[in-house]
Amino acid sequence: MRNRKRIWLSAMMLLLAIAVVLAGCGGGGGNAGAGSSPASGSDGGSSDGGSGGSSGGGESSGAGGEGEIKVGILHSLSGTMAISEVSVKDAELLAIEEINAKGGVLGKKLVPIIEDGASDWPTFAEKARKLLSEDKVATVFGGWTSASRKAMLPVFEELNGLLWYPVQYEGLEASPNIFYTGATTNQQIVPSVTWLLENRGKKFFLLGSDYVFPRTANKIIKAQLAAEGGEVVGEEYTPLGHTDYSTIISKIKQANPDVVYNTLNGDSNVAFFKQLKDAGITAQDLTTLSVSIAEEEIRGIGADVLEGHLAAWNYYQTTDTPENKAFVEAYKAKYGQDRVTADPIEAGYIAVYLWAAAVEKAGTTDVDAVREAAKGIEFGAPEGKVTIDGDNQHIYKTVRIGEVQADGMFKELWATDGPVKPDPYLTGYDWAAGLADE
Amino acid sequence: MDVMLLQLFNGISVSSILLLIALGLAITFGLMNVINMAHGEMIMIGAYAAFVTQNLFLAALPKDMFDWYFALAIPVSFAVSFLFGLLLESSLIRFLYGRPLDSLLATWGVGLALQQVARSIFGAPNVAVTSPGWLNGGWAVMEGVVLPYKRLFIIALVAFVLLLMYVYIYRTPEGRRMRAVMQNRDMAACLGISTRRVDAITFAVGSGIAGVAGCALTLIGPIGPSIGTYYIVDAFMVVVLGGVGKLIGSVLGALGIGMANTLLEFWTTASLGKVLVFLAVILFLQWKPRGIIAVRTRSLDT
Amino acid sequence: MPSAHWTPRRIWLLAGYAAAVSALLCAPLYLNDFRLNLLAKFLALAIAALGLDLIWGYTGILSLGHGVFFGLGAYAMAMHLKLVASGGKLPDFMSWSGLTKLPWFWKPFESPAFAMAAGVLLPVLLALVLGWFTFRNRIKGVYFTILTQALVIITTTLFVGQQAYTGGTNGITGYSTLFGFRISDPRTKVWLYLATAVALFAAFALCRYLTGSRFGRVLRAIRDGENRARFIGYDPAVYQMTAFCVSAGLAGLAGMLFVLHVGIISPSMMGIVPSIEMVLWVAIGGRGTLIGAVLGAILMNGAKSVLSESYPELWTLLIGLLFVAVVVFMPRGLAGLADLPAALRRRRERSDESGGVGSAGGFGDASGAEAGGAEGVRHSPV
């Protein structure tokens, strides 16, 4: 008796599973509404119209049906990177909603198709390929880690797609199929090191997570320090996801630096700063400057722990421009008053606007035309005026150094006079001559 | 000299954290032969329970009472994870006894699901838990050697939990029943012990301890949906190295891995230290395949 | 197995195989490029699942570290592809990391023959070394599983740390041609797909041969009672090592093919999560049956792709629940459902005989031993 029940249960489970899979495939064909609701688990994206197995020739045509343009959004919505990327997705959706409210692009509404990169680089490549070849999106906004961008790069170059990448990174790249709205090294790291040398001290301790960005960034920093009179008293890397920093803190104490240049990532930052404070080291004793800590991360660590520590970005929620006031207000209104904006969030937001402006100028969503039209486009962004640099498809950004305040916001200590021209290969610096691979 | 002292203390601190994480697993795996890959998520649940407790205190009680939230958070984390463990056991694990590899797979699925649930409820970004004021600062033993109160507290907490576990298992009737079921399930059932109840309670206690670990970890680490994945592998290493079946084995395993990790990390780098520790574990298991403290039986298949 | 007499079951089975083979070979005709690429990826993963099934379903040893073997094969192929794509110059990630000339162990990978051989032999070698130490010391069960996890962590940490030599977390990407054919060309992709399908058939045939032979019978004996097999006179360690090496080789082969379709390899694909996922495919498909491993790999990866496309924000929840449901309710996996009619018939006969008194055991009992995969050793008290 019991066995028969189990057998039927198994059969029903299987049917259920098949039903779910088929429902996912077949249902939702056609376009879901633009502008999804706040991140409460519902997806605003539509699946591709074809079923999982066969497709034949009836794929959805061009850039959407009448009156619609499909754009792809590809971020990690699960996995370890989700802690950062979900907010960027939200910002991009906000921008799409605002643009649609003003009439869309070329008179057509933007329809976002959201995919989950799952913090897994091959998945990013797969979903990018799907967005470009199946959904035939006009452009994709996505990525966070350099690894995800590197995984997507061949796909975009092969299928001649357009990717807008919103995160600060280590430079040394300028693909014709990617627009970089985050800072490259000469817009974040290099000016901050100069500022630190002038204002805080000469002895640097370099601490980073063990992956490509910190290692590459530290190479650049070491060359710069050698040229500008600084000294490296320690260089340590911890595995991703490392959570016990007691030994590292001992090493820092032993090395006795003036500055700790921190390129730790994600959860490691939480552990490090909490434990640094426990060890009795305050921001007055030791200057730290981080490049991966923004308002979002402060929320997760605690402003009391981070008070007085520094960061280098191009945008803070407290940046004083009228565009920023409007942006912050709109973001909080849509997603909740306790949400915060940060540099990558803003970079994702302006990426959508920049693309829209390029499309309007080109008069079409065709990738080559948009790429040409994008050169030199200016935009009044929340961070200040930005311009797309046609040489390397990065944007001009102002460099700002900020200090964490007790309320979890940044106070700007110093900024460049105006936006800085991007230089991903550091050609403008003699000491960087050996680093870049042209 | 003071650096060596500090490193010694760090080693003990790391060992205590490992032990706290692994203790719950030692019970469910060591005593019940159930591989619970959702153990990391139990830790996460405990951490979020502390977060919720903190928020309740912020919302409902006057500011000067805030620091006491932590005293309440510990039992609350235990209770919440206990309940989750109970739920998990009665709905899933009890079909999988005697099939450790199946329990591994099923609990992996549960872990994935729990992570997503946490993400949906609390949001994907990390949340902040402010430590109580009385734990800030450190004990300045001598010049240059400051032992943080939080780490001292965790060491004390671990010792306390260990003591409680010892008393529970070896001095209470419930613990005696647990040992009986563990040693000879059929005979225990014949003698009138409800093996179902004992299993459920044991698993729930293991999960509850994981919840306490999560609460303690809010003092020094991140709180987010995927923090469980950081600790699960280390927890298994400790349990397997220490030897399955006896709690003292896990203590020794945690000490071994914690001290080795800290010292190697200090002498080399963090990445290399981790690699060397795991290599050492592999080599050690070649020498003593059953772990440090092996329960020796007459039967050929243990 | 008794010599072939054409029972209805055999006929159905052969028909099924023929249908599957032809469906797979004709796939380029009815699938578009993207889906074909996905299917090729799934087939490559199915080869790895076959290897894992050999060591787990048939020999009873759970390895949670097959990602390492998979990754080694993949890296071997990736290194070759990268050298070809760099056209004689230093690969880009090496220049950024400050290397000035090609490390010595990269040089041999310029030859495709070496790369392909290394892709299979390196994992086999590693499996041999690991197996020698662990099986001879009679480490088995959970201890072995945890050991494989330690191996995974060691390998991924090393690969991530040595980014000058391995590309670090970014992995190795940016390929252009293989044997002179452009990889991004759709026609090349079709050929690569067919090559993968053929490799899958070959791997399947190999495993079928191994498991059907005396070797396979000894493996099953070791799975069900290692000490008994030892008492009869077989040395389990040798058989276990052989099975482990074969499974590692298959995983390496799978890795090589995988890289050709996906275009990137990174340490995350060697990690704990992919290793556990491989085990899950085999479990869901039905361990102890070869077709189950293949089915499980294809279906689960397909489900993952489809579910993540349709429910980008909730799919991990659905996948997790799916795992749980299958493991609990279908312990013999999907392949176990093939026994459904026979099992139902048996139940009906037995209950008719004994008047409806509930017989012991459920779906996972030992009655279907030839396809079974439940842990055979009784859990003895400790």
- Number of strand segments of chain A: 15
Q: How many β-strand stretches of chain B?
A: 2
Give a short account of the largest sheet of chain A.
7 strands, mixed
The CATH topology of the largest domain in chain A is: Rossmann fold
The low-confidence runs of chain B, each spanning 5 or more residues with pLDDT under 50, are: none
| Mean pLDDT over all positions of chain A | 83
Distance between the termini of chain A: 73 Å
Order of helices and strands of chain A: HEHEHEHEEHEHEHEHEHHEHHHEEEEE
Largest interface (CB < 8 Å): A-C, 71 and 66 residues
Strand adjacency order, main sheet of chain A: 7-6-8-9-10-14-15
Mean pLDDT of chain B: 87
The largest pleated sheet of chain B is described as:
2 strands, antiparallel
CATH architecture of the largest domain in chain A: 3-Layer(aba) Sandwich
Kindly, what is the distance between the CA atoms of the first and last residues of chain B, rounded to a whole number of angstroms? 46 Å
Rg of chain B, please? 20 Å
Number of helices of chain A: 13
Summarize the structure.
The complex is a heterotrimer of chains A (438), B (302) and C (382). Chain B has 302 residues and is mainly α.
What does this structure look like?
The complex is a heterotrimer of chains A (438), B (302) and C (382). By secondary structure, chain A is of the alpha/beta class. Chain A is built from 13 helices and 15 strands. Chain A folds into 2 domains: 64-183 and 320-397, Response regulator (Rossmann fold), CATH 3.40.50.2300; 186-318 and 398-432, Rossmann fold. Chain A has helices at 2-26, 82-101, 121-134, 146-159, 189-199, 212-228, 246-255, 267-278, 295-301, 303-306, 322-335, 343-362, 367-374; strands spanning 68-75, 109-116, 140-142, 163-165, 178-180, 203-209, 231-238, 259-263, 287-290, 310-313, 378-381, 384-389, 394-395, 400-404, 410-415. In chain A, the strands form 3 sheets. Chain A has a 7-stranded mixed sheet with strand order 7-6-8-9-10-14-15, with helices on both faces. Chain A has a 5-stranded parallel sheet with strand order 2-1-3-4-5, with helices on both faces. Chain A has a 3-stranded antiparallel sheet with strand order 11-12-13, covered by helices on one side. The longest helix of chain A is centred in the N-terminal third of the chain and has 25 residues, at 2-26. Chain A is globular, with a radius of gyration of 23 Å. Chain B is mainly alpha-helical and 302 residues long. In chain B, helix 1 packs antiparallel against helix 10 (247-267), helix 2 crosses helix 9 (228-242) and helix 3 (69-91) runs antiparallel to helix 8 (195-217). The mean pLDDT of chain B is 87. With 382 residues, chain C is mostly helical. Chain C has a domain at 44-271. Chain C has helices spanning 8-25, 27-30, 33-58, 66-86, 92-96, 112-136, 142-161, 163-166, 186-212, 214-224, 226-232, 236-262, 272-285, 290-310, 315-329, 340-353; strands at 172-173, 177-178, 181-182, 264-265. The interface between A and C is large, with 71 and 66 residues.
